[in-house]
Design goal:
globular; homodimer
């Protein structure tokens, strides 16, 4: 860091590696309610959801910036706790806080930009091939189960709550999977089915997965069909979904042991582009398009058929080439 | 750009130069009201206020990311216009849009991260010396005069409105001033007096400036004392304030001509650290601390004396070294 926080911009030394850059926001009322989690948990979570995007690229986190918009009644001590936790979580992942911004707004929002070095192979959403095994880290549906409990007026069991308030960015796993030859990856932020759709669309493949195989905490499994639905479509688990060459499926056990992290095969890629089949336990097949899952931004009725997915729209507008 | 928008993160090739990075937000109700400006003007302005931070470092803009939080009733066509204008303004400055995020929120906010290469000398807030001339580009107070007119229920004259809705990031000027040997610079975003305070604090100098010298549009000058106050403390003009070696003051005329941009000497740096004197036309001196100007985030009464300036607080927390 040549110029740290406190100037018009931070300045970092030229790296010897390509640089991965991502930005993501947590908005009160959309992504969380303040009574659900402490300031410390919120600050750490803001770091994690962005570090997770770097994990999905197999990048080594290097720098983060945080733009906070906060209501005027929020006390400085709360902001301190939030920023301290954000800083600690970032630094634990190897990322220095090099900048920030603070503005007043009606609700609390945290917009983070994370930068990481690609000092090894890069994982993108492209590269999955028909026959590839689809594998997820950790467990799914816990965050959605926690939100459901809160919205229902209750309190989630501690392990379920933990999945929402304290997700883990799978940085080591992402880098190990890339080094071991994974074909593609995405982090599960919008819900498995939606993020699987993103991966399939980018790779030009379809997918078939089995609902019963979706890894769940015991507390989520106990919710039966609702728990299965949380695992399939609930977002914000920040696990990695990756495509893995079928002929090396046996290697996953070794990887899971060395990472001390469950790696679960939930299905495989197919040749049927944009067709994603979710096999239910009774043998029925729930067929979805590539956009199932939670969409923060419904298309308004004034503009039928128009999507507002910045990620999907920007390549042509920005003139940015996909690699 | 190795991986453009549409993946978990963008990936850019390793640069041969240090990288400047900044993040800043425009929040509806805090920084603007939607009836004040068009979607196109808002999108372009979001780019400019961030590019201005790069200009103050003398960096060449390379990449931008935009995180949009928008109310659900905002139509897709409006978002399109906003993003198109953001993209066009960024590209005109040499910066590609490499990523974005879209979330729902009660009010519209645009949080932009801008990255630029330092392929020449870097300007920071440090480096001003006693005796240095304090110089500003363009004119001051126009943006504040426009806001004042709107808040008063009127409409600002066109040239004044333009200063708010269509500020110019002084990228070429910043780089030329750095190359020509300016000692320090900051962009005037929070108001001249406050930003001058930042520069003085970082450089360990004081300052004396003359209010009558502050460059103003004729329409701002016509506002008399109010116009002078807008120029001294109004924010969001996005001009550059820089410290220039006194012995080369004559060179400023040539620079202004080649940049086709007024460069106005408004005062000089002194040895009295943190003492900033604003000389009024009647000979009186208005002495301010380093924090005059508009503060988006007042210190709440629960925490007397506690500042919540992320920029000022972060260096120790982040462990980031000032260069």
């Amino acid at each position: 860091v040549l110029v740290g926080p406190g100037d018009d911009a931070a300045v970092v030394a030229p790296p010897g590696h390509p640089l991965a850059i991502t930005t993501d926001a947590l908005v009160e009322g959309t992504h969380f309610r303040r009574e659900w989690l402490t300031q410390e948990e919120l600050g750490a979570r803001a770091a994690t959801v962005n570090l997770s995007d770097l994990a999905a690229m197999a990048a080594q986190p290097a720098y983060v910036l945080i733009a906070i918009a906060a209501p005027s009644e929020m006390v400085a001590a709360d902001l301190d706790r939030l920023i301290d936790a954000f800083t600690a979580r970032s630094e634990a992942a190897g990322a220095l806080v090099i900048g920030g911004n603070l503005a007043r707004a009606p609700v609390l929002s945290l917009t983070v930009t994370a930068l990481g070095w690609l000092d090894g192979p890069c994982l993108t959403r492209q590269g999955a091939k028909p026959g590839d095994r689809l594998v997820v880290t950790g467990t799914l549906g816990g965050a959605a189960a926690a939100v459901s409990a809160w919205l229902g007026g209750g309190s989630p069991p501690a392990p379920v709550r933990e999945r929402f308030v304290n997700p883990v960015a799978r940085i080591t796993a992402g880098r190990a999977l890339a080094a071991a030859g994974a074909h593609a990856a995405i982090d599960v932020s919008d819900g498995l089915m939606q993020d699987l759709g993103h991966l399939c669309r980018a790779s030009g493949v379809g997918a078939a997965i089995e609902r019963e195989r979706l890894p769940r905490l015991a507390e989520v499994r106990a919710l039966d069909a609702a728990g299965a639905d949380f695992a399939a479509t609930g977002g914000e688990d920040y696990e990695l979904l990756f495509a893995w060459p079928a002929e090396r499926e046996a290697q996953l056990d070794d990887l899971a042991r060395s990472l001390e992290l469950p790696l679960t095969v939930i299905g495989h890629c197919t040749e049927d582009v944009d067709r994603i089949d979710l096999l239910l336990p009774d043998g029925a097949v729930h067929r979805t398009g590539p956009r199932a899952g939670f969409d923060h931004f419904a298309v308004p009725p004034e503009a039928p058929g128009r999507g507002v997915d910045v990620e999907a729209r920007s390549p042509t507008r920005a003139g940015g080439a996909k690699r």
